[in-house]
Amino acid sequence: MSVMNKAKLLILILTLVWMGCMGNAVAAETKRNVLGPGDVIKIFVYGHPDLTTEVKINETGNITFPLLGEIFIDGLTPASAEKKIAKLLESKDIIRRPQVNILASSLQSQMVSVLGLVRNQGRYPVDGKRSVTDILAMAGGVIPEGGEIVTLIRSEGTSFSKEVIDIIEMIRSNDLSRNVTVRSDDLIYVDRAPRFYIYGEVQRAGVYRLERNMTVIQGLSVGGGLTQRGTERGLRIQRRDAQGNLQILTANPSDLIQADDVIYIRESLF
After folding, report:
1. Which of 178, 182, 157 minimizes the C-alpha distance to 169?
2. Are 254 and 214 contacting, i.e. CB atoms less than 8 angstroms apart?
3. Could you give phi then psi for residue 24, rounded to 5 degrees?
4. Of 72, 90, 145, 159, which alpha carbon lies 20 to 30 A from 201's?
5. Which of 135, 111, 105 is nearest to 42 (CA)?
6. What is the tally of structural domains in the chain?
């Protein structure tokens, strides 16, 4: 194959790849902008203020418009709905060459679900371009028991994708590329923050939030420190391995605590 033919083949392949990417992008954008039941839209017909109306798309996907009656617009973009109404007005000899504009007042059909340890779980409208942190803010933010890891579950046709977003690391590293733009029907889930347990000769035995890179000595300080009978010698950690088997480990004060560790403080014999 000549150099010229190879170059033409490469250009053809790159063009096809680009067209595929653009097709996916257009499909995703169209999905985000389609109208559906629950949406409230305002319809304007240029030069005919008497036809201006604000309607809510009903459960069957229809709206009621003056002089036309019921019109099915479920699944259409605002631009497609404009063309459909304009065509109906002209085909019924009501208005010649009508100019129809639609403004979405409330897109209740474009919703994102937020579950887990947020202040207000529920479904929230995707009104324009919204990121994961935007939706979390709408849900009232993460409650104190909530973790710093957010899971985004997205429908991809017949399958689902999952993306794990470390909110704190994203902010610390100033890498806002991880602050994904949400789509309709996305699910955002905030899990419980990791915890560890302290019991034995400490001032306040109990369950505590595990902070990043927390050491055993820091964990003891969270528990109020040792009692007069407690000793740092012979510290023990109960920890489950990857197979779920319980291990009893000797711990040093500088060791890092892991999620669900149980720290036991022994009583001093002297």
Report:
1. 178
2. no
3. -65, -40
4. 145
5. 105
6. 3
* Amino acid sitting at position 108: Q
Instruction: Give 39: exposed, middle or buried? Use CB within 10 Å, 0-12, 13-18, 19+.
Output: buried
Do residues 87 and 99 make contact, with C-beta atoms less than 8 angstroms apart? no
pLDDT tens digits for range 165-189: 999 999 889 888 889 999 888 999 9
Task: State pLDDT tens for residues 182-237.
Answer: 988 899 999 999 999 999 999 999 999 999 999 999 999 999 998 888 888 878 99
Examine the pLDDT at 32 and tell me if it is beyond 60: no
Q: Measuring CA to CA, how many Å separate 179 from each of 124, 131, 144, 174, 228?
A: 17, 6, 21, 10, 49
Q: Which domain holds residue 126?
A: 111-192
pLDDT of residue 27: 42
- The Cβ of residue 107 has, within 10 Å, a number of other Cβ atoms equal to 22
Helices and strands, counts by H and E, the chain: 5, 15
- Contact status, residue 39 vs residue 81, Cβ threshold 8 Å: no
User: What does the alpha-carbon distance between residue 239 and residue 254 come to, in Å, rounded to a whole number?
Assistant: 17
> In this structure, are 121 and 183 located in the same domain?
yes
Q: Report if residue 88 sits inside a domain.
A: yes
> CA 224 → CA 100, 251, 265, 266, distances in Å?
69, 18, 12, 15
Q: Across the strands, what pairs with 153?
A: 162, 187
Residues 6+ apart with CB under 8 A from 6: none
Tallying the residues shown for the chain, one arrives at 270
Judge if 120 and 182 occupy the same domain.
Answer: yes
Report residue 34: phi and psi, to 5°.
Answer: -75, 150
